[in-house]
Amino acid sequence: MNIRIRALALIALPLAAIAPAQAQFGQAAPVEIDQARITAMAPTMQVAGTVLSRSDVLLSAEIDGRLLQIAEVGQRFVAGDVLARVEDTVLTLRAEELQGEIARVESRLQFLEAELSRYESLAQSNLASRTQIDQTRSDRDISLSDLRIARSRLAQIEDQIERTRIRAPFDGIVAQRLVQAGERVSVGTEVMRAYDPLNLEVVARAPLTYYRYLQPGDELAVRVGDEVIGAPLRTLVSQGSESVHVFELRLDLERPLPVGQTVRVTIPTAD
After folding, report:
1. Do residues 262 and 49 lie in contact, with contact meaning Cβ atoms separated by under 8 Å?
2. Running DSSP on this structure, what letter comes out for residue 215?
3. Domains along the chain?
4. DSSP character for 213?
5. How far apart are CA 192 and CA 177, in angstroms?
6. CA 31 from centre of chain
7. How does DSSP assign 4-44, residue by residue?
8. pTM over 0.90
9. CA distances from 149 to 2, 83, 100, 143 (A)
10. How far apart are CA 166 and CA 191, in angstroms?
11. Distance between CA atoms of residues 104 and 116, nearest Å
């Protein structure tokens, strides 16, 4: 019996030495088997979401008139670029008229200032009456008031001229033209849609039951086709009512995805 045990031990030693050598020369290495374990995982569900731009606007006309120019769909722009322009002929003519009026009032004001100074000098020698001085001073003050009014009107016209140019509020791309060049627009007419394709977020809605399992800052899995990416939860807002029992999730998205892309967001449904 003892002899048999020693023989088995002697056989086991060469086998132990052979195993690493087999792995080294490409032969199958021995497989280690461990005990199976059961790990509890929090239940989850997937909800539909959409990729949106955080800077997405409808640009509207601020002046009545004929649209002279509008940017092409797909055109990229930077903040401050002129994307559309409304005819400003009448406003420009009015501005020129006011500039002439201002020049006339300024000329008369210079004359009255000189007259008032001359009358005040003559009054010291009793060569000008008090009435002449008072009348000239009154005319001077009226001209000053007329000048302020004319300059104010000119500033208003210049502001309206500037408003005939619809400028980009941020860097982005033209997504849609809602009117065409040559059409007449009014104040408030929507001219185009534009958005920033680099400032993105995912917006999704989920049953209000699971609101308490999420907190701002949580990293959630977002499935885009066959790919899964992580996105931090920026905010969640309850939108429940008598007929709707959902809340909205908004996740920051750093991956450049097309605006309007549908995704699936995984959220926990229990602790």
Report:
1. yes
2. -
3. 44-54+197-268 (2.40.30.170), 66-86+167-195 (2.40.50.100), 89-163 (1.10.287)
4. G
5. 4
6. 57
7. HHHHHHHHHHHHHHHHHHHHHTTPPPPPP-----------E
8. no
9. 122, 33, 13, 10
10. 9
11. 18
pLDDT in tens, the chain (271 residues): 343 333 333 334 343 444 444 444 455 556 666 565 544 467 999 999 999 999 999 999 999 999 999 999 999 999 999 999 999 999 999 999 999 999 999 999 999 999 888 888 887 877 778 888 889 889 999 999 999 999 999 999 999 999 999 999 999 999 999 999 999 999 999 999 999 999 999 999 999 999 999 999 999 999 999 999 999 999 999 987 888 899 999 999 999 999 999 999 999 999 8
| Count of all residues that appear for the chain in the document | 271
